[in-house]
Amino acid sequence: MNRTATDWRVRILSALSDPTRLDIIEFLGKEERCVCEIVPAFGRAQSTISKHLAVLFEAGILERRIDGKRTLYRVKNPMLFDLLREVDALALEEISELKEAFWGWVAASSWFPSRYGCSRLLECLWTSL
Asked: What Gene3D superfamilies does this protein map onto (predicted)?
């Protein structure tokens, strides 16, 4: 079966669409690590982590190597970290736009901050982003 570029994109992006899998990638970084190191770092059942690792491996994101009784994983292509940085930049841009829209709404809503006395609370919430 010939896969198109779209098929590969879907496969890779689907594998990256889970928070635990993203955390696993961050945990691995540029190192090779044994499943015996990965499982304790996440406090989940080995079967759960193994399923996540399998999804990442099958999507071509991770490489797997057997060393005796140990199974080791590493990120296959360091360009993945460039992709994640680009996604982070997109997310920050969206948050910034949302923040601007929110403050525009607060400024236009004469009743909101003064009536409830919570403008300082809102300021604290948004500056923490």
From this structure: Winged helix-like DNA-binding domain superfamily/Winged helix DNA-binding domain
